[in-house]
Design a protein that fits this description.
Elements: H1 2-18, E1 36-41, E2 43-47, E3 50-66, E4 71-76, E5 83-84, E6 89-93, H2 96-123, H3 130-156, E7 158-160, E8 165-167, E9 177-178, E10 183-200, E11 212-216, E12 225-236, E13 242-250, E14 261-267, E15 271-277, E16 282-284, E17 287-293, E18 299-303, E19 305-310, E20 313-318, E21 325-329, E22 341-346
Parallel strand pairs: 1-22
Antiparallel strand pairs: 1-21, 2-15, 3-10, 3-14, 4-6, 4-9, 5-8, 6-7, 8-10, 10-13, 11-12, 11-14, 12-13, 15-20, 16-17, 17-18, 17-21, 19-20
Helix pairs in contact: 2-3
């Protein structure tokens, strides 16, 4: 008799667990209470997406300062890693011959102008020919051109900073013979830096000039550097499916240097979306699904497409509607068509 009762008990248990495999809407076996599950209500909430990328800093303006003529360095007017203003003299080359040529051009121009003034005075009394006056006017114009050329030649021997910034390491010394292209030093404008990084093409429609970007450097743990997007590339790279973005990064204390690698954080604009508790999303292979409750508290397996994951919630792109109830805890106790007892619902 005991064996018969034991057999019936085992059969009841087997039927309870395996009956859902053969029935689309099983009822809870008589004498057993519906399993208690925690329920989450699908609802709209504000969500945003965060992107992490790696970016590189570049000087806002950068140039190699080089010689444009051949000559010996006569004087160096800077020290390594010092700031300069636009137009400051950086290096002077030996230009004695050019200075002499300039003085000669100035003297010739003064003499040409003196003769022209004399001829103009004579012309008022018709005491000079028109041809002679025209010739002298041409000589003045030619002297002015030669003076301008002499000044330009001398200016090539005086090397100036083309913009304000910080000079790099000095590469020449007094007496060094330089030729066109010889590197003298570098100049970088770093009060504001360019921060360039790449983002996936799906982000292109979410980027706008002026949008805030955060960045971090391993050189300054815990410190956040704020930047603003200035431009978005006009092309998507066919190999990486990414687009280059450039942001301006204020650097008033000059902590950051050109060429540094920064961790970039970007947040999309906030939007409202359907969300569920992350525990409600089940995974079977590549398929995501949830257990939805109907009005009778019966379970229905529903395939869903998920989107942004934000904290403990997940965006649902399809498969559910606002107000739907899904099992958040206790998913291991339910089957398709089973009736359950909701312990509560969350938002």
């Amino acid at each position: 008799m005991k064996k018969i009762l034991l057999g019936l008990f085992v059969a009841a248990i087997v039927a309870y667990w395996f009956w859902p495999e053969f029935s689309s809407a099983p009822d809870t076996p008589p004498g057993l209470l519906p399993p208690v599950v925690s329920v989450h209500e699908v609802q709209h909430q504000p969500v945003f997406e965060r992107l992490e990328a790696l970016g590189t800093t570049r000087a806002w303006e950068a140039v190699d300062i080089t010689a444009t003529v051949t000559g010996k360095v006569d004087a160096v007017h800077f020290r390594d890693n010092t700031s300069v203003e636009k137009g400051d003299v950086v290096v002077e080359l030996d230009a004695d011959r050019q200075r002499a040529a300039l003085q000669e051009a100035e003297v010739n121009l003064r003499e040409a102008r003196r003769l022209l003034r004399h001829y103009l005075a004579l012309d008022k009394r018709d005491a000079v020919s028109k041809t002679l006056l025209d010739e002298q006017q041409s000589k003045v114009a030619a002297s002015e051109a030669r003076l301008a050329a002499a000044r330009a030649e001398l200016d090539d021997f005086i090397i100036r900073a083309p913009f304000s910034g910080f000079l790099g390491v000095r590469r020449v010394s007094p007496g060094t013979l330089v030729t066109p292209g010889t590197l003298i030093t570098t100049l970088d404008a770093i009060d504001t830096l360019k921060l360039t990084f790449s983002v996936p093409e799906r982000w292109v429609g979410r980027l706008n000039p002026g949008q805030a970007v955060t960045s971090r450097s391993v050189a300054y743990p815990g410190e956040i550097f704020e930047a603003r997007i200035t431009s978005v590339g006009t092309r998507v790279d066919a190999a990486t499916r990414a687009v280059e973005v450039q942001a301006s990064l204020a650097n008033p204390e000059h902590k950051l240097k050109p060429g540094m690698l920064l961790a970039v954080g970007l947040v999309s604009a906030e939007r409202r979306a359907l969300v569920v508790d992350e525990q409600a999303i089940q995974l079977e292979g590549s398929t995501r699904f949830v257990y939805r409750l109907d009005s009778d508290n019966r379970i229905h397996r529903v395939v869903v497409d998920s989107g942004v994951r934000q904290g403990a919630i997940v965006e649902v792109l399809s498969g559910l509607d606002a107000g739907d109830r899904v099992v958040a805890e206790g998913t291991q106790k339910v089957r398709e068509g089973m009736q359950v007892s909701p312990a509560g619902s969350g938002g």
